[in-house]
Task: inverse folding
């Protein structure tokens, strides 16, 4: 995965200054848009790597970690659909939560909230209620009544469906069952790991916890290169931030290749810049500078 440089703030400011006087510089749009696109792809690739799909440092072929296989054998969270009682649109509870993360609304009157970027405060113009962004997100997580993203009618979180089977879950077959004592193959017995060669035995939870802390070796089947997940993560975590809400980046990465005219390109870039302004911690991943200087620069850009 190639590391592209962050954009210099003066280049983006120059683009906006030219736009205000009616000039769309195609070269500047290409330079800034392609730079944001390359960084966005890298951020998304880092997220996929943490979920188990790691690009090989030599050939970019995808190497799958053990966590990827464990996730495939784990029961996924319920995504059961239900209908809004007012507009009859089909929803999932995730849709309701995600809509508020991108477009926050008041929980009482359901009006759009105003955002004070300097103080990181959300405020309702009608009810005068205020939240910090962190408190608002935490509140979304625990509520059972949220507005429908289509018609804003309050809907209730659906009751979780009962498991069709009460049988105990089987342990994933993809755990490495090498004995840490004699380095020979052991076995998973009920609630424990047991090695029949040396008699070593460890409670299953503690054994798997130890495995998560150990060095994870990876090998590329395409070029034969071997590396560790820890070394890959250390190299790329220093350059990119992992975000729990990458929706604006997904949107820009999908939108940019389809932009054919300078006007479309400017709209795509402006949309991402506004999203970075709202998510200050992510902005320094794309724009050169530290968190404070980039946040101040984005504030200046928005009001000038």
Result:
């Amino acid at each position: 995965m190639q590391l592209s440089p962050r954009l210099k703030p003066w280049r983006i400011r120059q683009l906006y200054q030219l736009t205000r006087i009616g000039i769309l510089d195609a070269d500047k749009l290409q330079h800034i848009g392609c730079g944001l696109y390359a960084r966005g792809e890298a951020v998304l690739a880092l997220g996929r790597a943490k979920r188990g799909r790691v690009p090989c440092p030599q050939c970019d072929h995808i190497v799958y970690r053990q966590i990827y296989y464990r996730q495939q054998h784990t029961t996924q969270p319920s995504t059961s659909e239900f209908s809004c009682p007012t507009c009859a649109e089909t929803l999932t509870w995730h849709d309701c939560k995600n809509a508020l993360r991108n477009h926050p609304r008041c929980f009482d009157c359901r009006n759009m909230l105003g955002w004070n970027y300097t103080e990181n405060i959300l405020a309702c113009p009608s009810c005068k209620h205020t939240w910090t962004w962190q408190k608002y997100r935490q509140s979304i997580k625990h509520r059972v009544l949220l507005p429908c993203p289509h018609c804003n009618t309050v809907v209730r979180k659906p009751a979780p469906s009962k498991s069709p089977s009460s049988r105990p879950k089987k342990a994933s077959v993809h755990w490495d069952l090498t004995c840490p004592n004699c380095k020979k193959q052991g076995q998973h017995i009920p609630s424990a790991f047991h090695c029949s060669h040396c008699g070593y035995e460890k409670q299953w939870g503690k054994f798997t916890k130890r495995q998560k802390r150990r060095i994870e070796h990876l090998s590329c089947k395409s070029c034969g290169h071997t590396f560790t997940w820890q070394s890959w993560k250390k190299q790329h975590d220093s350059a990119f931030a992992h975000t729990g809400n990458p929706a604006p980046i997904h949107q820009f990465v999908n939108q940019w290749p389809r932009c054919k005219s300078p006007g479309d390109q400017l709209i795509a870039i402006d949309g991402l810049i506004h999203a970075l302004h709202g998510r200050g911690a992510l902005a320094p991943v794309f724009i050169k500078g530290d968190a404070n200087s980039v946040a101040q620069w984005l504030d200046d850009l928005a009001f000038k």
